[in-house]
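Homework-ish question, so no full write-ups if that breaks the rules, but can someone show me the predicted structure for this set?
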Amino acid sequence: MDYSQFLAMKQEIGLLVVFLLVFLYDTFMPRSTQKGLPAFASIAMLLLTVAGCLGCCLCSCSDVVAFGGMYETSPVISAIKNILNIGVVIVLIQSIKWANGEFMTMRRGEFYELLLVTLFGMYLMISARHFLVFVIGLESASLPLAAMVAFDKNRYESHEAAVKYILTAVFSSAIFMMGLSFVYALAGSLYFENIYGALFVSSTSTMLVIAIAFVIAGIGFKLSLVPFHLWTADVYQGAPTSVTSYLSVISKGATAFAFLVVMAQVFGSLYAQVWEWMLYALIILTITVGNLFAIRQRNMKRFLAFSSISQAGYIMLGVIAYNTLGMAAMMFYILVYIFSNLGAFGVIGAIENASGKVSMDDYRGLYKTNPRLAFTMMLAMFSLAGIPPFAGFFSKFFIFTGALQGASVAIYVLVLIALINTIVSLYYYLLVVKAMFISDDECVIAPFRSSCSERLGMWIALFGIMFLGLLSPVYDSLIDLSSLSSIGMYFIR
Amino acid sequence: MSATIPVLILAIPLFMFIFLGLAGKKMSHLLAGILGTLGMGTVLVLAYYTAFHYFFSGDPAFISEAGERLQYIVFNQTWLQFTDRLVISLGFFLDPISAMMLVVITTISFMVHLYSLGYMRDHHGVFEKGFQRFYAFLSLFSFSMLGLVVATNIFQMYIFWELVGASSYLLIGFYYTKNSAVSASKKAFIVTRFADLGFLIGILVLSFYTGTFDFTSLTSVPVEGMANVYHVDLSTPNAVLGVFQSSAAPMFMGASVLTWALVLIFMGGMGKSAMMPLHIWLPDAMEGPTPVSALIHAATMVVAGVYLVARLFPLYLMEETSLVIVTVVGAITAFYAAMVACAQIDIKRVLAFSTISQIAFMMVSLGVARPEFHEGLGYMASMFHLFTHAMFKALLFLGAGALIHAIGSNDYTAMHGLRKYMPVTHWTFLIGCLAIAGIIPFSGFFSKDEILSACGNYSPLVYVWMSMVAGLTAFYMFRLYYLIFWWKEHKIPEGHHAPHDQAWTMSLPLIILALISCVAGFIPFGKFVSWNGEPYDFMAHFDWGVASISLLVAVLAIILATVMYRKENSLPEKFKNALPALWDWCHHRFYWDELYMFITHKIIFNGICRPLAWFDRHIIDGTMDSFAILTNKASELIRPLQSGQVQMYVWIYIIGALLLGGVTVLCLI
Amino acid sequence: MEIKAIYYLIPSLIMFCCGLYGFLTRRNMIAMLISLELMLNAVDMNFVIFNRFLFPEQLEGMMFTLFAIAIAAAETAVAIAIIINVYRSVNQVDVRTLNQMKF
Amino acid sequence: MFTNILIYFVVIPLVMLGLLALCRDVKQIRAVAVVGSLGLIGLSVYVLLEYLGIRAAGNEDPMLFVDSWSWFAPLNIHLAVGVDGISIAMLLLSSIIVFAGSFASWTIAQPKEFFLWLILLSTGVFGFFISIDLFTMFMFYEVALIPMYLLIGVWGSGNKNYSAMKLTLMLMGGSAFLMLGLIGIYYHSAPEGAPLTWNLLEIVDNAAISHGWQSFLFPMTFVGFGVLGAMFPFHTWSPDGHASAPTAVSMLHAGVLMKLGGYGCFRVAIYTMPQAAHELSWIFLILTGISVVYGAFCACVKTDLKYINAYSSVSHCGLVLFAILMLNETAMTGAIMQMLSHGLMTALFFALIGMIYGRTHTREITQMGGMMQILPYLSVCYVIAGMASLGLPGLSGFVAEMTIFVGSFKAGMADYLAGDGSLRLVFTIIACCSIVITAVYILRVVGKLLFGPVYDNHHRSLTDATWWERLSTATLIVCVACIGCFPNFFNNLINFTFKPAIFSVLGIN
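A: Not a homework solution, just the prediction itself:
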């Protein structure tokens, strides 16, 4: 076989290299230097990201299909991978303080290794053009996460979360593969393009519909679309904050893109007949239910869990839009969402590390004690709520614009529902702002100085929140990429 | 003529208002008063100059070869342009009546300025609080009133109409610490505001059809005969007559739009001139300082309504109906007010109602004026009566002011038999009474006689009715006179020194006005003012029959009053007990105020406002809140989904997946 | 008589449903894991059957099955580990007691 | 980019924000606020003069100083600016009120944060008025909305949490509809094949929005802006919001922000979708007509000063939308003048109320009386404001209302004579009635609050206005009087330049 096609997997290989470096560092470096590992990992990841971005910008690599059509890479795909990398870098930086905590000494390395492995799995998911690869990616993206969720041993919630996660995850993968087996039965192959070729509107059968429903359920589980979302809140609450932030942004973003790819390249021909309406229902459910639950939450992590559920609904608008505008908007949304959410989690993590407080009630009057943190949190909330001039506004606006391009009245209704839901979401985001800024009672969180790594993470997030929207080149380049990408030709209604 | 003087006439009072208003607090009371008076004096001179120039210069701009007086626009400045045709401009309009009004206003205003120097301080010569403010407001009022009478277009008139309303509001409420004064001022403003609503809509209708506000376009005087009594100068794109006769102008509820417009405009006049049923504010307005009552609520502002109708008289001529309405309203009001005036204790109230009644006279005489009777005698008569009435009513009010200032009370019960103590006041007041009662040779006689003969020409019914009112007038005035100055000896409460005539600043105006009231009757008014500008000698139409009858009525009434009230006796009591109901109704002004109270408070306030406010808070706002509440309820409702049980989660998962597939299948197949 | 695919499919379906039922009803987490295994194996069977009966000319299904088995093994391993952790901390493996985090 | 004068309307506030962030003590903060707002006033006056100069030179373009910089090329989103008489009038208004407002909040607590939010808010306002690109317009619109939450929440009084949340959510609800409407407009902004655009002028030129879509998008946009314009069923945020807001915020919100609604309704909804405006105007006519009298009636029974003014704002702003919907030049001119006049006088009102409240610590007119003896300056100002609001000639209110009535009566009669029903006519008459009701509640307040005997003897010790309060109120009074005395200047400014718009609107009837 032709080994040159490994060159197509530059990013995967780069990631493996980082993984190996971390592994070697963890294994062979003396105990005294182990505290340097988090920083080392972050820097390595940062270098990878920079390299990836540069490569993405400099060499305009065209679409490459490798390994007998099982693997594909293209500018869009490497772009989304870079977006994920950026997120991972921020997560890593933010987690340094936590990872250097004393009870982490034994398993510091594992955390980073598992994390990188999951990232690798997501890469595969995104690049897969064959369901075997896809499943492998999916599993390797979700199994290690279970271990990470269970990470801090001496917190009971962590265990409970891990159990809930692993059981539901395995169950959903079983459902997913069941669906795949039906697809295989109908199409006689697991290659995306073969399936696409084999499925026609005319060939729509009950089995196929059930298959599609199962596939959507399987992927929707990782996206935490309602009604497949129920694990989310508990896991987010139970997991260590760094893991939660990783879960909430990276795996969600990767899966969202993979979802788009699968739906377009495998079931594209059935968009209007079969799955547009499934998605329609799912989006309405997801946004609404997510919001309704988020209203009542007092625990910040749980709160953000539900908010991220409804955000997933907005992201799905980019899929149902089913055009390049929507795709670009979705990628942009993911990018912005990464920054906003990580901004919020950065603050939460910092406060948790310093005072162990995670309840919204403890945040009352935070502005008096820690104004900078409060301010960061507020901007993150505004960005999540989609308030200009922060990035969130632009991403929301663009995703709606994408969804409405040449849209039917039904989609207008959908967007209206989504818009009305933004009011509810604004309400609970403002609740946080209110707690921090408006309420007069004394803050239980003493003033403290967060570690430089945390501050660095927050600064990066803030930068993104402030300027991602205002600087148009980001969005423009995403549009260019997605309009060039081969996925575009599947967008036929 | 140059625009300088007219501009000054308007500018000086305005400047005085701003100057005294801003700097008044810094300067001494006396200085402020003197400045105000001097300013008004200058205006007086200028106004007289202008008026005489208009009447006597013989300038072809003012009087044609045929000798008919012309309308002359001294200047006209665009103020606000709605469309290229519909323009509000501020200007200075000279014609017989505006010139006459200039004289009246400035005279009375100057007298009042002078008078107030004495009136607005207590017996020890200490000026009242807010003295400067008082003069500032007086100047403001003079400015607005002058602007009103010289309006070149109906909208300018409306503007100043509102301004006089406001300044009267401020002056009535001058003693703003007294709740009664505050509520009186509020009442005055709101009632007139309500009337102005009609005025405004009338203007809108009129301007919509004619496409102009200008008086010259709306009312240009006829050249000969009735044929083209009404023609708009051709500068106006569509001549008014044409418009209103064309089919474009629909009938509305049985009357032509022009009638509606005129009636609505007249409604504004009713408000300002306190015609029934919008008269209720005027008696309360007596809460203001007496000089104010003399200036605003006797002489000038209240006749604005009459002036308005006179101004638009040619338009009214086009619609018989509107004139009839004017007549009826006037006649009823005149009688009503006279009746009420017979049963008031408060001398200012008596004068107030007599004012209403007299203004009603003017209205009636406008209403009955027709070109075919003595070249519209009624028009001239009402203007004449306006003039004379301004003089003697101001005189009466100022006299009453002097009395009140001396006694410290408004009720004649506290006065009685003051003739020895206050001779000047006594005599001048008597002259005023004679004038208003219409005794030859005092001014009232002539003007009222003109009115009566005009009525006679129009219909005997109106004539009889109005003569009866004239008799009543004489009766209640002399009742008042006797109760103040005779009836019984004045008893001086111990600790007080005897009442006496006031300072020259107060007496001088009385004397001057008394003189005017004596001689004003002999002014050949027809020479100056007539409905179409053609001067004529009204003595030619002087109807001695009518005159003698009215004189007789007046004398009889006076005799009756003398019998009843000259010496203290029980006749009035008997009278009252004979007809208790009549007395009560008259004394309580036929319970109009109570009716209004009921409508405003019970119906509008409690019946509309409160329910609306409740509706807003509970229904509208409640709906908005209920959205929030519903959202909360919903989230409460779906809470059990997140039960924390893994198997529950999986149940929901699998059911969701199956539903997703199943429903789609059902839809497809 | 020759054997039709249906003869194999029905057992696999039964297996899947049993797994599902067990997963939804059993309280012991180990038992739940076993039920999961049943479900996954049913899936594997499906693949094999479809490959063998519908598309015998290539071995995609078989290959997928091999990987799926491996994945299932991995999943079990991780799950067991976690369950043991839980057991360490709460001394029992009843899934219904794990509901501290809810609503 | 910085060669265009208009951009400085956004630049100056941004610079102010930067400086405020650096400020150390309250003196510096005040200095920044005053200098900055003075700069804004100067700028808007300069633009006004420039503008008049260019117009006098016979330039007939619908907009001047037009400039456009590409922002998001793929969606054809530009940062497009341009002004006509209306926008300039609004800019003037905003800068004046910002100026007065910064004096009215001279001694506010936490000045730094307060002014930061205030200036951010005004950034949004100015940006909204200068931009003619729907996207940027909407962005600035929302920028202007959000600071309200914190301004009310932190510095407010009374039931502030509830009010702030309610206000924010309701306005955001409006902007939800608005966003849908705007995107819809974008997708139908150009004929088949031509590039879509967000630019107002191009949209109007293309006039490509199909009839069906207009009748769907017009209500969306009109309601969206109407919520901020306090249109009848959606007005309930305003009483609570104003009641709890701090002085300067009430001023800015009632004075400027509510104008965003009217301006947007005219500039976006009617300007781009005239047909639908013609067919659907009756619905909104009824709503706005109701809010005119409704607000006035409600104001008659309220006893809290701020509630009274909030309801009178509902009434007056209702008049604005009402006049806009008359779709006739005079009425629209009147609407814009009403925006100016209401902005100024209501700002004056709220300033005075704030100052009185700051002294007496109550806003219940039943708890006060005879203020004229205690606080003569403030009381006189209050009387003037009241007179302006009940439409006394010589003050701004009269001019605006008369223009509106003349215009809308014309429209109404035209309909009536053409047999198109008498709805407009009837509602014009009803609206006219509001001048009486206004008089009622204004005089009620004046009589109760300022006149009469002193209610509470503790109030006798109060001190009259300080110099900054005098400055703040005097500025507004002078402006009110200017509009009232020289209306034709503003009339021409608005009216003349707004002919092109009018023609495009009335072109189709």
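Now go work out the reasoning yourself. Hint: Chain A has one domain: 3-490.
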